[in-house]
Amino acid sequence: MVEEHNKRVRQQWLDCINARDIDTAIELLHPEFVSHAPGRSDVEGVREWFNMLFAAFPDMHSTTLVLFADGDKVVHYIRVEGTHNGTFMGIPSTGKHAVWTLIDILRFADGKMIEHWNETDSIGMMQQLGLIPA
To answer: How is the chain split into domains, by residue range?
Structure first.
């Protein structure tokens, strides 16, 4: 079934991200991949984004909370946590641990992720890092 295949590919993606294996993760993206999330418009933008995240949050780990598929789309709600030990979007390390959630919508074509939309609890993360008031 297509939906089950797409969910497996999405899980492989998350496993690669958790293992810091960006090269293998990138292989799961369609060559015509487009992201509608800031800073990640294409395959190389995704590579740069995750390399920045890995440097900023070296212990970053994501856990799936909800996962479902319908047709060519997979949606997941995940919990991300990590310690801010490097520069993140120009923000120097705070040394603080943060936990945040995000929702991704992924569209698949030819068995690979081809399109991406994202909503992240950026405010919650920034509050935990002490960058904005709670």
So the answer is: 2-128
| Alpha-carbon separation of residue 69 from 36, 101, 106, 120, 131 (angstroms) | 19, 19, 9, 20, 36
Q: How far apart are CA 122 and CA 39, in angstroms?
A: 14
Rg from Cα positions in the chain:
15
CATH architecture assignment, domain 2-128? Roll (3.10)
User: Comparing C-alpha atoms, which of 58, 57, 33 is closest to residue 43?
Assistant: 33
pLDDT tens digits, 93-120: 999 999 999 999 999 999 999 999 999 9
pLDDT digits (tens, 9 = 90+) for 20-52: 999 999 999 999 999 998 777 889 999 999 999
